[in-house]
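Continued from yesterday's entry.
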Amino acid sequence: MKKINSNTKCLLMTATLVLMQLLSFAQIKLIDLKDGSINKALTLNYQIKKTTKYIDIENINNRFTNIKQNSPRLHGQILTKPDIVIDMVKLSRICANHISKQQIETLAAGIKYAGLMIDIKTDINGNTLEVSFFTEQNSILTLNQLEKIEKELMTIKLVIMKPEILPLLEGSNFWRITPTIIYEDLLKIKEEMESSKQ
């Protein structure tokens, strides 16, 4: 058996410690992040804004953060739920894929109707342009989980605009939809998904 020299041992131990630090940092819960900080998840950086009760998590690459939605042809008309359809089942399943059952149970046991609000900005065809998140400040979710949810949302069409309203949306810079995933409801979906795998 070959002996490992002391330099190699030292290098291996240092590399292991660095890797463990990186992994543990990426798994820091939202509750532990500081207001105003920018934190790296797996590959994306997020700006954290906290109030006394809530936390806003914004990808720093989002272009529309401080830009007002502009729909010049809408002329103050209000679109209703039947005009814009969000596939809440698909959205819930994406969240359930990246949040553990134990986490959902903990989050659901806290504040009644607690949830994860997802701010989705789309073009008029329903293609996702960018995503940000808003939830209770005591959340045990991690930035890694939110990044995975965001990346999956960027690859699918979740929002459908009815064809008859498309002329009213022409010229819009983006369209904003803010569905909330209630943790109690998410728990039921997670349990259904797990039972269907058995």
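--- second protein ---
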Amino acid sequence: MDSQSPRMVSEFSHTDFSSPHALTEHCRLLAFCLVNLDTSPANENLCTMLLGELNALDAALDLPYAVPASPYPFDAHLYDDRPLTASELAEQCRALAHGMLQVSEPWVRASLGFVLWERINTLRGTLDAV
């Protein structure tokens, strides 16, 4: 790299990677990749990685933690922040309901059910706003 090239430095370079903020950011990046990836074997690997990060996050949330100065450096263009349309919300609701039917673990079903309830409420609000 020549001296004129800009140097990329992650804002997490001096961060505790076991902190809830860093783990949350890892989960968000993995989820983004998962949603935008079409190949099945890679999806399974990303899901496994995401589950590992979420398990670490669950453990980290039980410990005291400090809020970093800039907790989410990748927000700039990672997600499309536009509100979802009613049909997109309905599609998510169908996917969550389907997932609930496919899963046998009670805690997973309960969590999917809660997210489904949130999505249905959001869909209702979207329809009421029209």
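DSSP finds four helices and no strands in the chain. The CA atoms of residues 25 and 75 lie 9 Å apart. Will compare against the first tomorrow.
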